[in-house]
Each structure stands twice: as structure tokens, then as C-alpha cells.
Please model this.
Amino acid sequence: MTLNILFAGTPEFGLPSLARLIDLGHTPSAVLTQPDRPAGRGRRLQVSPIKQLATDHGIEVLQPSTLKGFDLTDRSADLLVTAAYGLLLPKAVLDAPRLGCWNLHASLLPRWRGASPIQQAILAGDPQTGISLMQMDEGLDTGPVLLQKALDIGEAETAGELHDRLSWLAAEVLAEAIQALEADELPPAWPQPATGVSHAPLITKANAKLDWAQPAEQLARAVRAYNPWPVAHTDIFAERGVATLRILEARAVPMPPDHSGRAGAIVPSDGSALMVACGEGALAIDRLQVPGKRPVAARDFLNARPDWR
Model:
């Protein structure tokens, strides 16, 4: 079966899926991606990873700033596949392809509908997450599900590491669905259940500021969830000459029995980690960064500041 497929995506999450379509002999006739945007210190326009891969393979690239009034009817598409595209698809776009639109979503729907499913799964301490291939409708990640595959979340896994594993799982799910569609063996989509729905809102830098009144277990999950962006941070050490401290690796540990300091206070340690009291337990910070400096092990940081121990 020859399929006229369109692909919509912007960040790196969609790269394995686009590459897999090409490998399967279903090179999209066009790719939709968000407009080039300024980035870096020089604020130069930067192309999206999806645009770069499409350009490398000679695929037509479309970059509308909005899909309102955007017309796909003249492209005679059989299917539109989206993976972290970043724009909501209006009804006119959803209805244009003969087989509709599929979305690769990084959660086990209906859990974690929305923009930050990977981070929210880690923050909640979920043991598993996965990929849902969904037949899109006008709602936000509410459409019926065609395929799902789960994977376990590692105890120390960061959002960046989980993102990469899920992006490859998404490519596997898409390939399985395309091959089943070709063989006329794709099972019908099933409606998402009304129970178990949760939402994953857009994350900002403010979300990553640690609240030391929270339990250490929750803060350790936050450190993982906000790595590599926006990175967990605190400003409680301003009086010690460090206005902001970025925390890259940390773990929850019991509070020493001889310490009863307030939440946010430094807990005396052997210097292998920077220990901070929390609402419950303590957070052992193993890797950190002062803005403008390179990330360092907490041991090296404390060697230069013995009074912090």
C-alpha cells in the first residue's frame, strides 16, 4: 500500500519517528514544523530538528505560524502523523487526510494529557509511562487510542533520559501501526476511559524552584523531572554568596537523628554531598551548578567552601 503521509513535529522527540517512516519507504510528502526562532546568545534564527532532518532528505517543509485557515485539502494526504508539533490542529486540518490524523503522545492515556507528560510522570512517582498512538479529535489528547506500549521509569532516571527512550518507543509504535495498516490488520481505536484522567500543564522556570518544606522524596523527583530543563534551583544560599544554585543530581536521605534544623538549612555532612533539610528527610545534592560556571560534583564544590559542610 502506497500512503501519502504528512508529518508534523518540531523538537527532537519526533526525530526517530520521522526517520522510521523514511526507513519504511513512507517518506512524507511534506513536513510541518514550527517557524524558525531566535536562540542562543546571538539570537540567531534556529531551525527545528525536524526541519533539519526533512531538509537533509529533500522533503518539503511547511512552517505556518498558525493553522487557522491553513488548507491541506489540495495535498490528497492519506494520513497526518504528529509528534510534539506544538500547535493544536483545527477541525479543517483534522478532517483533511483520508484516514485522519494520528498523534504520538508520551504517556499512557488518559493519564497525563497535555504538554508535560514526561515531567509529570516523574514528579508523581509513576512506576511506568509509555507511548499512546491516538486518533486525533478536537480535544487536547482526548481522541481514541490505536496502540499503546508501556515502559518502566528508572529510579534515578531524568526527564531527559526518559524523553530519549520514549522517542525511540514512539518510532516503534508508529512502525507497528503503519505495517498493520498496510496489511489491513490495524485494530479499531478504543475510546479513552472517563476515569483516570490527569493533566500535564505547560512547565515554566518558576515550577523548578524548590520548596524545602516539601518532603525530600518529592524534591528528589523534582530534580529529575526538571533535568535538563528548566533545572531545579534554589536561592536559599544567597547570604552565603550564591544567589542561585542549580541542582542537577540529588537523592532523598533520612535526616540525621542529631539534627533538627529548619527546612532549607544545611545539614552537617562528610563533604561527599551538600545536605539540605526538608519538610521530611533531607536532600543529598550530588551535582550542582552556580550560574556562569560549569556543573561540578558537590564534593568539589564543598572542598572550596568547607564552612558549608
The chain is about 20% helix and 25% strand. The chain has a mean pLDDT of 94.
